[in-house]
Design brief:
This protein is mostly helical. The chain contains 13 helices and no strands.
Length: 297
């Protein structure tokens, strides 16, 4: 008797089945009502922004001109096609479906190549949205490509392709990765070009300048106007659009000159000063002596 009472006291009190199941039911209902965790990234697109891609590019900074990025998208297209060809070896029908998605994504979000940081932000926002997080930026970006994604998922599911929705959305994220890497490549090449100019100036125009003047010159040389113009010229040359590339070379040269105008002007005047002093005729021992008459005895 005592042992039985001890065992009963040790066992936890049984709860009604309905009470045990209630938290799970409540959790599912909250998800249905849209109570999702907030994504761990900031929303930077304001509600009033109409062109959200342009806003992101301006917000995160240009690596190359937006118009040049649009014209020079052949590098991105080539890389996306290479991925599609790899998929087509195993699943030709699915590759065709993804090709339609890629066309829509590049048309809607392709200008993000102008800013690698903006492309990465867009990728992260969409990734968190696909994972079930709450992100306003992700929702606004997804709204631009949602019809194409839904249609692709429908076609893929009808074709019996497994994990259709997940794989379509992953491919969209891969395209944004390609855009970010392409923009980063052109920015890196532009920085190499400007660095070569900076090394040349350091040995000539920078000589004898104060630290403050040199710092100001560096800021101008590595400004967004200079970097984006150089990067745009490289991108357009890669795309074979040499006429447009030459125009951006001209813009880059003009921006570079404006950035270091004081240095160029100072170096020019210093060279003129050296030439005039070396070619000036001798005026005699005493300053101001100009007479050539012999001294009378």
């Amino acid at each position: 008797m005592g042992r039985a009472s001890t065992r009963e006291a040790a066992e936890p009190e049984a709860k009604p089945a309905a009470e045990v199941r209630r938290p799970a039911v409540e959790e599912r209902s909250l998800r249905r009502l849209g109570e999702r965790p907030r994504a761990p990234i900031a929303d930077v697109i304001p509600d009033v922004a109409l062109e959200i891609v342009d806003h992101l590019v301006e917000r995160f900074g240009l690596a190359l001109d937006r118009e040049a990025a649009f014209k020079a998208k052949s590098l991105v297209v080539a890389k996306v096609k290479a991925r599609l060809e790899k998929i087509a070896r195993r699943e030709p029908e699915f590759a065709h479906i993804l090709g339609e998605v890629a066309e829509d994504v590049l048309r809607s979000l392709g200008r993000l190549m102008a800013s690698p940081d903006a492309a990465r932000h867009a990728r992260d926002a969409l990734l968190y949205l696909f994972e079930g997080y709450r992100t306003r930026d992700g929702e606004r970006l997804y709204a631009r490509i949602e019809p194409a994604i839904r249609e692709a998922v429908r076609k893929a599911e009808e074709a019996g392709i497994p994990d259709a929705e997940y794989r379509v959305k992953q491919f969209v994220l891969e395209i944004l990765d390609v855009l970010a890497r392409a923009g980063e490549r052109y920015r890196r090449d532009a920085l190499k070009g400007v660095s070569a100019v900076e090394r040349a100036l350091r040995a000539t125009a920078f000589a004898g300048l104060s630290a403050a003047a040199v710092y100001s010159a560096y800021q101008g040389l590595y400004s967004e106007a200079v970097i984006s113009s150089v990067a745009s010229a490289i991108a357009l040359a890669d795309a074979g659009q040499f006429k447009d590339a030459v125009e951006y070379v001209r813009r880059a040269a003009k921006a570079l000159y404006e950035a270091a105008k004081e240095l160029f002007e100072g170096a020019r005047w210093r060279r003129r000063g050296r030439r005039s002093s070396s070619s000036r005729p001798s005026r005699g021992f005493w300053p101001g002596w100009t007479s050539t008459r012999p001294i009378s005895s």
